[in-house]
Write a structure and sequence with these properties.
Two copies of one chain form a homodimer. The first copy, chain A, is of the alpha+beta class. Chain A has a domain of 108 residues: Glutathione S-transferase Yfyf (Class Pi), Chain A, domain 2 (Up-down Bundle). Helix content of chain A is 54%, strand content 11%. In chain A, α4 runs parallel beside α6, α5 crosses α9 and α6 crosses α9. Chain A is globular, with a radius of gyration of 17 Å. Chain A starts with a strand and ends with a strand. The mean pLDDT of chain A is 93. Chains A, B: One of its GO terms (biological process) is glutathione metabolic process.
Chain lengths: 213, 213
Amino acid sequence: MSVPKLTYFAIRGRGELARLVMAAARKQLDEVTVDFACWEEMQPGTTFGVLPTLEVNGKEYFQGNAIATYLARENGLYGSNNLDCLMIDQIVQLKEDILTVEINTVVGSDQDKMSALKKLVSDVYPRTMKIFNRFIHENPANSGFVVGDKMTLGDLAIFEGTQSCFNSDSVFLSGFPNIMALREKVAAQDGLKEYLARRKTLVPIHSFLYTDI
Amino acid sequence: MSVPKLTYFAIRGRGELARLVMAAARKQLDEVTVDFACWEEMQPGTTFGVLPTLEVNGKEYFQGNAIATYLARENGLYGSNNLDCLMIDQIVQLKEDILTVEINTVVGSDQDKMSALKKLVSDVYPRTMKIFNRFIHENPANSGFVVGDKMTLGDLAIFEGTQSCFNSDSVFLSGFPNIMALREKVAAQDGLKEYLARRKTLVPIHSFLYTDI
């Protein structure tokens, strides 16, 4: 495989899971950063009309989670049997469910934003963090990771899916000790440690939500 | 594997892709149908707080697309190499993007519904149908299917992802001949032919959208 090229905005959003996979694999990822201000003009000329895209061997692919899963399979970070892969896939999709509501807290009318924020705090965060925490607890390997005894895409998806919650309300998240322990284990891995040290700027994107870009 | 048990509402929604996979594989799928009227009361007592769920060997899993992908892998309906799997995954996620907007046309305030409908007709359908059509056209195997020379989860996801559009405006969809030909090929497969003959009731869920349940 040639060095894959990720094209996305300078935010975590739907590109971050792919970046985390490549950092964890200590593999090179070329990145093209698109300026939000230019996107509207660029969009009609793009292949899919949405970002991120990944170019592999001259061909373009899209859908952030499909891209991250491809890169995870390519680098030995997926499950080793079908049920483990199902567990990882459901975690990746739960991360997406969280992100969708988080995005809704910062776009649209003020009323839409408030409604999304209420849903995030009263429903999505409590429900999904409980599921993540339980999944880690119920891993038969009892490794602190969510599937088997080594780090996989599932752990990276929990790390990324809990990141905005952690930035915004770490006291709330500390009520889920398995998540907090997993976050520490993931952040200490070679490759990720160096990547996360570079990704350090906290930017408020809402009165409640903070992001690191 | 014991017979898997799918729990969901009596709609296509996020359960249908799993049903199509099992019909195509001619495998038994136990189904538990939840009444919408009972859901609010049931919800707090459920494992994940959302449907569908799949029970396999006594353990519950969730997320419709993760479930369908697991069943596809179990039954030889996934890709045969990593890039084919990426192609299939991005199609499954594109189907989800369409469904999300379709759902928004039937829930929320009248203003929200109208806004989603406008987005569906002016952006989502034209853009996504063009992508599906092109993917089928560009399959090097030139099989009429979207990946390789036999039917996979990718074809089932295109079939399902274009179903509401087909029900509602088949004239518009006929502008995408590769999709129409794929829909015919898929619908003619053993197992699916019989399943689709049973799934015949067209129900209007909106002035524009029709569903078969």
